[in-house]
Amino acid sequence: MPNMMDTIDGNMMATGGAAAIGPVVGAGYILGFDGTNNTVKLHAGGDVLPIGISAGQSEKDAEGVSLVTVGASISYYPCSGLLYVRAAASQTFTTGLPVYCLEGGLAVDGADASGQQLGIYVGGGHASTVLGDLVPVLCSGVGHI
Hints:
The protein is mostly beta strands. Helix content is 0%, strand content 40%. The protein has two domains: 7-79, no CATH class; 83-139, no CATH class. The strands form three sheets. Strands 1-5-4-2-3 form a five-stranded antiparallel sheet, with no helix packed on it. It starts with 9 loop residues before the first strand and ends in a 6-residue tail after the last strand.
């Protein structure tokens, strides 16, 4: 059975988000969709449905600076199956408990939930995180949780 992390299943146009959120700086960030501008950006928290998890950094210009304009691209994995997601700091994930989306494309545990559920934590035991740790999440698809 192929590993979901081996195949990039999408390539959507991304704005890189608002200045407060910044460009996508690596793999594992939760992405949301901006229906007004028809673009993908870092998840803004709240009840916005997640569409995928970034596969890497957003597009850079010739000087290596991340593009934050409409038309920059980002590759991502759709929110389905087992994916590794960047966690916010000071989260305690326990096996089988819900994982939620936070502003800036980060994952949080149920104690800090204030928006859309991403999936279920499937790692072992307790996982206490520092900002940016990758945690395994079983995603069941957008709007299906």
